[in-house]
Structures are given as structure tokens and as C-alpha cells.
Amino acid sequence: MVQSDGEEPIIANVRDQSAEEAYLAQIRRLTLDAARALEEERARISRELHDELGQTLTAINLNLAWLTSRSTGWDVKTQERLTEAKQFVNQLLDSVRSLSTSLRPPILDNRDLREAVRSYAAEFSRRSGIACRAVAVPTDLEVHDPVATTLFRIFQEAMTNVARHSLAAKCGIFLRSVGPEIELKVRDSGVGAVPKRLEGVQSLGIAGMRERAASMGGTLVVQNRPEGGVCVTARLPWRQAEKRNNP
Ligand SMILES: Nc1ncnc2c1ncn2[C@@H]1O[C@H](COP(=O)(O)OP(=O)(O)OP(=O)(O)O)[C@@H](O)[C@H]1O
Ligand SMILES: [Mg+2]
């Protein structure tokens, strides 16, 4: 709508802007839903492969071993076929294992969150040259899914932002339990950000972290630190989530 003097009325701009923001928020929600569905589906296929195929192949292997133990005196050709069958089954077992591993969220599999965070931070330091210190309190902190995966994904995005935007020399990662919540902090010593950019309206990273935290009933705050650099704080209720998932 254009007024007779040629100026755009302010009200139209406000409406356009909020419609655009709502549209962006909707796209972010859909993207996150799709990513979550994909992750669940990959984990399901990975379990099926591991449990169904893996266990059946192991059973076939045991039968073949049983046959081998009784094969003395069999003709050479039959023994060769038996050996070949065992090799095929072992090759298949290897493929199933590596396929099923490649489908899982890699770093969290069979490891607790603290270990996963520590080893990610070590690899991150090696690649980026940013010195990282990871501290978990208490030391036997046990976090289970879905809280663990949610926190780990938030952690990965926060670290990616440190590498991409901070120009920091150091980064601290703190994982601790605070009453009924678990808190993750990623603090860098870098240049900090233009405050408006930390609202995460235009990009997926911060908005995605915030939505992941909210999906677990938690909160996420991204702030410039008075000493310089950025601090990301995620807080998720976790004892309740743990009980829901591990009755
Ligand atoms: N640790 C940081 N140090 C400095 N600036 C940061 C930091 N983290 C985020 N920012 C600023 O906040 C902005 C928004 O971050 P966000 O993760 O949402 O988007 P992005 O990293 O630019 O893109 P993507 O959608 O791929 O994540 C960044 O573009 C950057 O300007
Ligand atoms: Mg980002």
C-alpha cells in the first residue's frame, strides 16, 4: 500500500516484518522436525540392522563353526565351500556393523555425555587450534536420552559458532547439575557478537538450539560476556526426563 505522498505507511512495514518472522519461524520448526524425524529413523534402522541381521548372521556363523568341527574326513571341495561360507558371513557381519555404526549419532553411541563432550572438545581443539577445557560436575554425572542427544546437538552448534565467528584463543565447556536441571555452558574468549545477531532471527543455528532446548522444556540463553566473547547457556530439566525414559 502506497500513500498519496509516495511514502510507505509504517503499519504495512510492521505487518510485513512480523509475517516474515512468523514464516521464518515456521520454516525453522519444520526443518527441526524433519531433522529429528530423520535422526529417529536412522537410529531405528541402525538398531534393526544390529539386532536382527547381526544376531542372525552370528547364529549362522555358530552353525558353520559347528559343521567345521565335524568336517574332518569330508572331501576337500566340501571343506573349501564351508570355509568360503564362513568368510562370506564374516564379511557381511563387518558390513552390517559399519553400516549400523554410520547410521547412529556417531559420538554419543555407547558413551556418556561427558565422555562424548570431552572427546569432541579434544578433536575440536586439534582442528581449530582453540584451546578447550571441559569440566563436568559432579564427575559421575549421568545423562540419558533424549536429554543427552539434545544437549550434545546444542553443544555441537555452540562449538561450530565458536569456530566460525569468535576468533577466540580459548573456550570453556561446563556441564553441571543445578537442582532439577542440567546446565551446559560454552564460553569463548573471542570478539563477541553484534547483540542483534544473537537473537538468531535470521539464521538457523541459535534458533535451532533454542528450539531444541524448548522441546525438552528447557531454556537457552546466548549472551556477550562482560569480559569479551560469547556465552551459551542451556538448561534442561533432566531428572524428570530420565525417569520418563528409564522407568
Ligand atoms: N561465539 C560467537 N562469537 C561471535 N559471534 C557469534 C558467536 N555465535 C554466534 N555469533 C553471531 O551470531 C550469529 C547467529 O548465529 P547462528 O548460529 O544463528 O547463525 P550462523 O552461525 O551465522 O549460521 P548457521 O545458521 O549456519 O548456524 C552469527 O552469524 C554470528 O554473527
Ligand atoms: Mg551457527
Concise summary:
The protein is of the alpha+beta class and 247 residues long. It has helices at residues 10-69, 76-103, 113-128, 147-166, 204-215, 239-245, and strands at residues 131-137, 170-178, 181-188, 219-224, 230-237.
Number of discrete helical segments? 6
- The helix fraction, in percent, is 55-70%
Q: At the fourth CATH level, what is the homologous superfamily of the largest domain?
A: Histidine kinase-like ATPase, C-terminal domain
CATH architecture of the largest domain: 2-Layer Sandwich
**Ions and ligands:** adenosine-5'-triphosphate, magnesium ion
Assign the structural class, choosing from mainly alpha, mainly beta, alpha/beta, alpha+beta, or little secondary structure: alpha+beta
**What Rg do the Cα atoms give?**
26 Å
Count of domains: 2
Name of the CATH first level of the largest domain: Alpha Beta
Could you report the average pLDDT, rounded to the nearest whole number?
83
Largest sheet report: 5 strands, mixed
Uncertain segments of ≥5 residues (pLDDT<50)? Answer: 240-247
- Looking at the structure, the CATH topology of the largest domain is Heat Shock Protein 90
Task: For the record, give the distance between the C-alpha atoms at the N and C termini, rounded to a whole number.
Answer: 59 Å
The spatial strand order of the largest sheet comes to 1-2-3-5-4
